[in-house]
Amino acid sequence: MNWRLLAKRQWPLALSLTGIVIAETGAISTDLGWWQLPGVLVVCAISVLAPRKPFDAALAAAFAIACSALYLRLLGVPFEPHFFLSGATVSMTGAAMATIAVLVREASHVRAVLGTVFVVTAMISAEVLGWPAVSAREYREWHPDPTSYLFGACIMLVLAIGTGLYFRARDNERASQLAASVAAAQNSERMALARELHDVVAHYVTSIVVHARAGQLNRAAAEQVLPTIEASGHEALTAMRRLVGTLRDGESSGPAASSSLMDDVRALAGESGLPVRLSFDLQDAVPQELARSVLRLVQESLTNTRKHAAAVSSVDVSLSSGDGLLHLAVVDDGVASGVPVGGSGGYGLVGMRERVDLLGGRFSAGRREPTGWTVRAELPIA
């Protein structure tokens, strides 16, 4: 724990102990009684610094309490005012309780038990060592009841341990919540990267596979599809570099949407190699982030058509806006082709639905009669 955090956490304890020590100095009745102040101040300082090294602080506090009681015994004076029958002041007792609470809160179970035993033993030794310094006359005037003092000591010990256990439970709860938040953030990031990989890289790899297959089936057309395969390979490499840049630098891995969503959709349609018919009725400006997601939806829809459909004579892509919503529809008339090109991981529709849900929109996809497939999305523009 750094010093700034320690000061922020411990200043109430330091202020309280300082006030108690100042009040106690007014009760000192002999010149030799002032010798208790060094020991009291050391024990209070240890309790304030305890969060840095709780177990070491407990050992140091126990040693300081025992040494203070011992040299006061050699001087023949008691702690003033002694909080129990004959030993330890209010400030020293409070410091010991605070040290035990910090120990129970932050140390391991074994160290918490051992440290508590050491501090309690030191407090008992202060009582034993301080008893001869209390005059018989003073004892007769007080008529103290040892049982009541013992009960009070047990209550304070329970309070110190209970406080430590309470804050330990709170710390564990906060740690669990933090771990859950970190796990959720990591999972969200993994899902985002998975969508990018599926929507971007798979799109271009699918194009490569489709054109390579066409070249195998028609040797005469092989030379014509090679440039398309090369271009798709370059695009796939570019997309991979963007994803690597995201992992390294935290920059956005989304597609580079231009200022015109319609131009970007036209470019995707041209790259797809499908008979795409476009329809636009955009009455509202589309934000860049939303435009990027729309491009991903169009891209994935066209990729699915190429992978899963045969005998496609038309793909209708329409974009319109109104009443604060952007409407997207991608409709084809293809026939299911059986085993898709390159196999299918089944994540395309899942990724599109997740994108739309994250933007607060509505998504639907399904077969149309008599043949074909429809993808529709409604996305809030604001």
From TrEMBL:
Please name one Pfam family that this protein belongs to. Answer: HATPase_c
**What chemistry does it catalyse, as a reaction equation?**
ATP + protein L-histidine = ADP + protein N-phospho-L-histidine
Q: Which organism is it from?
A: Lentzea jiangxiensis
Transmembrane portions of the chain: 33-50, 57-76, 82-103, 110-129, 149-167
Q: Name one GO cellular component term.
A: membrane
Recorded superkingdom: Bacteria
Ranges where the Signal transduction histidine kinase subgroup 3 dimerisation and phosphoacceptor domain occurs: 189-250
Q: What is its EC number?
A: 2.7.13.3
Q: Which Gene3D superfamilies match?
A: 1.20.5.1930, Histidine kinase-like ATPase, C-terminal domain
- Domain Histidine kinase/HSP90-like ATPase, by residue range, is 292-381
The protein depicted here goes by the name histidine kinase
MF GO annotations? ATP binding; phosphorelay sensor kinase activity; protein dimerization activity
User: Which of UniProt's keywords are assigned here?
Assistant: ATP-binding, Kinase, Membrane, Nucleotide-binding, Phosphoprotein, Transferase, Transmembrane, Transmembrane helix, Two-component regulatory system
Cross-referenced InterPro entries, in alphabetical order?
A: HATPase_C_sf, HATPase_dom, Sensor_HK_TwoCompSys, Sig_transdc_His_kin_sub3_dim/P
